[in-house]
Amino acid sequence: MELIADALLGAGALGAAIYCIVLSRRLKRFNNLQNGMGGAVAVLSAQVNDMTKALEDARNAAGTSAEQLTDLTKRAEAASRNLELMMASLHDLPEEPTQQSSVQREAIAEPAISTPNSDVPMFLSHRHSHLEAAE
Description:
Elements: H1 2-31, H2 37-91, H3 102-109, H4 126-134
Organism: Aliiroseovarius salicola
Keywords: Membrane, Transmembrane, Transmembrane helix
Transmembrane segments: 6-24
């Protein structure tokens, strides 16, 4: 009986040794950096690092672009206010005839484009139209 138990124990140990050898070879192939899964993990890790750097660069560029856009918007609003003031001051100019050549007088007398009604403003600001709509 002991002999059978020892034979079975030896066979089990031999089976476990073969199983360990097979697993060891598979694990080596799995972790191989050139062909196995280890190589794929290394490539993916490098790609994640590259994407992280690209994302940071994109965030920095977006922040810079937002600052520039804000600055340009403020400048455009200031220029719009100045143009509105200039247009308003043009309506206040007196209509005195000055010494003009006959060609200039004819051009003024017969405009090529019809003039809009003087009651309707030529340019409207969105800011003013929103205020009037709210009232």
